[in-house]
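Researcher: For the record, we're logging two predictions in this thread. I'll number them. Prediction 1 follows.
Model: Prediction 1, sequence and structure:
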Amino acid sequence: MTREDFDGLPGSDVDALRRFATRSTYGPGTTLFRKGDLPEEIMIVESGEIELVVDPGRERLVVQILHAGTLVDHLALILDVPYRYSAVTLTRATVLRLRLDTIAALEELFPEIGFRWLSLLAHTLDRAYERVRELTGKSAHEQVTYLLLHESAERNEPTVDLTQDEVAATLALSRQTVSRVLHDLAHEHAIKQERRRIRILDEEKLQAHLPR
């Protein structure tokens, strides 16, 4: 399972669009847009990682982590509605920006990209539904385990670049609960906690925490 299996445009599409885009690079923690803003351009992650975040009161909830090749909340653009989330860079990230009038012209030049774009949207919605279904009614151990396996598969590598706070925000769990679960998994030698990342040591041990 690779990153493109989830929500990334093929590299050939990104290469084609890059010629018509402006490129901007941001440091970690930069807000690209806020919840409630109206979309004025399409953004594609060229490198790095970006979080889509909801801020209900003082609680910070991470909805999704976006990787290279991903369009940033393209649903708001297609539906012509305000952004439902804020977008914040998790790492140093480079973003390709395309104006809306440029997108309209590109639909005529590259209709096959438009078709893949719609397929990508359908796949993104299906994955969101699957994630909700997988996490509904699950224990904290099961939720944390599912997230680690999911993020590892999306990156196609055994490390997950998330802190305890970020895991807690993504799953809407308390940091104390996440800390306890990660401690238990580390005690089983299923994972190893490193600085700002979690390394999966034994995927089978993690899978054992998920319902059969």
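Researcher: Logged. Prediction 2.
Model: Prediction 2, sequence and structure:
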Amino acid sequence: MWLFLCTFVASMAKEQSSVKERQRVDLDEPRRYKVTIYNDDFTTMEFVVKILRVVFFKSQADAEALMLMVHHSDKAVVGIYSYDIAVSKVNKATQMARDEGFPLRLTYEPEE
């Protein structure tokens, strides 16, 4: 029994030493995308606030401040997200606008 145990332990030591160590690969953070909302002459301010609250989860005060920024500056960045989330939010907000008959425009582009 003792001989078997010693042979087993020696065998395990050989197996462990023959395992290759993985080389560490440096991974970059995934690229992030900023979502921008644009002003137009037809979409109501109330609807823009609704979009900012429902789709982008902004508070009432933040949504109103962003809406006014869009109104005065013609556009505003409403959030920075991973690619999939940015695309999803733009599509959801655009579809909500179209369902209500508004030409609201949102875009996403890589963050610099």
